[in-house]
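Per your request, structure below.
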C-alpha cells in the first residue's frame, strides 16, 4: 500500500494531504490564493478547492507548484501518491494484498477455469474481461494496472510459473476475432519461455478435480506459501498450512488430467488456426 510522503500528525487522504501542503507552502511564501493563481496561471477558486481537499490536482499543476515553490518534486510525489491510491481503490477488496505478494513470489502454480489468467492477458483481452459495468476511464486504469503486474515476467530473475487452464477458458469467445487471436499468440509465446510451463485440461476430460474453481499457489523463499482465491465480492489470501497443502494436492490432481506441454502447444495452434 502506498504510504503518505510524510506524517503531518493528522490522518488525511492523499488529496487532503496535498491540499494541506499547498496551503502551508503558499502561506510560507506570503502569497494569497489570488496572487498564487496569477503567478502560476490557475483560478483562485480551483486552488481553494485543492487546498480544501475537494479537488484532485492535475499532474501539470503539481509540477508548476514544484517550480514556483522550489520544492524539488514534493508536489509531484504527492500527485503520484494520489494516483496510486486511486488505482488501489478500484481493485476488489483483498486484491491489493495479493498483488504485493505476487510481486514477491519465487514461483506460482495457477489454475484457471473461466478466463486466461491476468498475468498472461493482452491489453485488448484484459479490457474485454474488465469492462462490464465500468466507465471506460476506469477500465483503462485497471488494464494499466494489470499490464504493470506483468513486468515481473520480464525481470532478470522471473518467477517460475506452472499455469493450467481449462480448455473452455481458452475457447471462451472474449472480444472480437483479432482479440482472441492476439491472446492465443501471447499464450504460445509465453509457453516457449523456459520459466513458464503451460498446460490445458481438454474438454474431453469430463469431471476432474478442478471443477470447484480457480486458485493460485504462491511460493516464497523466506516465508510460508499462500493460496489466492477470487470471488465475486473480492479476493482471499490463505496461508494456513492445511489450506495450502489441500490446494497443492488438488493442483497435482488437476495436472494429472491436463495435456502435456507439447500437446497443449498443439491445441493452442489448432485453436488459433480455426479462428
Amino acid at each position: 500500500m502506498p504510504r503518505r510522503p510524510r506524517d503531518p500528525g493528522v490522518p488525511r487522504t492523499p488529496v487532503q494531504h496535498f491540499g494541506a501542503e499547498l496551503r502551508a507552502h503558499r502561506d510560507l511564501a506570503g502569497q494569497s490564493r489570488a496572487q498564487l493563481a496569477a503567478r502560476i496561471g490557475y483560478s483562485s477558486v480551483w486552488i481553494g478547492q485543492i487546498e480544501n481537499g475537494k479537488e484532485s490536482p492535475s499532474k501539470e499543476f503539481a509540477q508548476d507548484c514544484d517550480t514556483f515553490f522550489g520544492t524539488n518534486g514534493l508536489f509531484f510525489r504527492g500527485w503520484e501518491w494520489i494516483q496510486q491510491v486511486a488505482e488501489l481503490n478500484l481493485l476488489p477488496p483483498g486484491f491489493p494484498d495479493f498483488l504485493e505478494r505476487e510481486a514477491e513470489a519465487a514461483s506460482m502454480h495457477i489454475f484457471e477455469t473461466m478466463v486466461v489468467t491476468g498475468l498472461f492477458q493482452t491489453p485488448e483481452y484484459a479490457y474485454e474481461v474488465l469492462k462490464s459495468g465500468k466507465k471506460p476511464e476506469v477500465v483503462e486504469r485497471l488494464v494499466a494496472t494489470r499490464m504493470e503486474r506483468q513486468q515481473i515476467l520480464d525481470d532478470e530473475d522471473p518467477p517460475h510459473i506452472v499455469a493450467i487452464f481449462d480448455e473452455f477458458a481458452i475457447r471462451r469467445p472474449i472480444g472480437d476475432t483479432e482479440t482472441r487471436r492476439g491472446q492465443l499468440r501471447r499464450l504460445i509465446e509465453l509457453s516457449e519461455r523456459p520459466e513458464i510451463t503451460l498446460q490445458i485440461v481438454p474438454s474431453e476430460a469430463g469431471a476432474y478435480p478442478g471443477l470447484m474453481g480457480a486458485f493460485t499457489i504462491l511460493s516464497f523463499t523466506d516465508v510460508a506459501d499462500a493460496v489466492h482465491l477470487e470471488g465475486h465480492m473480492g479476493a482471499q489470501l490463505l496461508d494456513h498450512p492445511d489450506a495450502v497443502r489441500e490446494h497443492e494436492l488438488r493442483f497435482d490432481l488437476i495436472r494429472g488430467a491436463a495435456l502435456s506441454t507439447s500437446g497443449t502447444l498443439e491445441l493452442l495452434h489448432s485453436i488459433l488456426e480455426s479462428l
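The longest helix spans residues 74-90.

Regards,
D.
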